[in-house]
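Example 9 (inverse folding). The structure is encoded as follows.
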């Protein structure tokens, strides 16, 4: 039965996020960063925080790093300092980091306090009550999506990564510099 469920999950994942060539993105940057290459229009979503709604449309013209995590995930906890360091290198750049907790029972206050204890200076979001899990199906955490300025998913990392490493920073810089019109 577990093998059947795994096969169904794989087929579902590929139907939601089919792999295809990345136009305009240097494949070597994706490979060095350890990302699965993707080329799909990023589904819009909504996240609610402090009475306001945030959507992917609000990030138009910026590189978006969409990261799914949970408080019970040990690798997720280890990544927070790396994300903090990565974000220090992205100050004053057109990039946004959206860490989304998939915790089913945690409150916004609980995930805020949890992230703060891990040294995060960035805001964290709950997947609920928004619609992000309807648009980005995840069967495990951590999962990180890199979305270009035009709203296309260029790559995905399933599992933990070295988010402060030169490979990731080079990838993000490449996405920030991407200026040619992409044909889709």
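The amino acid assigned to each position is listed next.
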């Amino acid at each position: 039965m577990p093998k059947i469920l795994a096969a169904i999950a794989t087929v579902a994942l590929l139907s939601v996020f089919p792999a295809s060539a990345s136009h305009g993105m240097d494949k070597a940057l994706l490979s060095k960063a350890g990302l699965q290459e993707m080329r799909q229009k990023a589904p819009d979503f909504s996240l609610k925080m402090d009475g306001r709604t945030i959507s992917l449309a609000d990030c138009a013209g910026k590189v978006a790093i969409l990261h799914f995590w949970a408080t019970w995930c040990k690798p997720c906890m280890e990544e927070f300092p790396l994300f903090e360091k990565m974000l220090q290198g992205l100050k004053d750049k057109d990039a946004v980091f959206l860490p989304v907790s998939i915790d089913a029972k945690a409150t916004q206050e609980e995930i805020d306090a949890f992230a703060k204890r891990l040294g995060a200076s960035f805001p964290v979001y709950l997947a609920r009550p928004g619609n992000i899990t309807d648009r980005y199906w995840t069967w495990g955490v951590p999962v990180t999506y890199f979305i270009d300025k035009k709203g296309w998913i260029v790559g995905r990392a399933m599992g933990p990564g070295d988010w402060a490493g030169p490979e990731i920073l080079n990838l993000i810089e490449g996405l920030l510099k991407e200026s040619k019109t992409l044909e889709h």
